[in-house]
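Sample entry (77 residues):
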Amino acid sequence: MEYEGEIVVSPCQTIKMAFKYNLLDNGELWLQMLEKRNVMAYTYNEEYFKNIFESIVNQYFEQIHQLYNQLKILSNE
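Predicted structure, serialized as tokens:
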């Protein structure tokens, strides 16, 4: 994004710009991941942690893996 002249200063803004540049398929899901990550940084609730862990395994991992593969391809170009 910096190469394109974009200046991003926050994780939320980075996600929105990545969605704009088609690096992410589901911007809303990535924003949801960020929100849950932020809550987990300050919440010490085991039940909430278990729910987040299930979300990572069942929803988020595939999105993270897709982004990894896209970035890997881009880095080889």
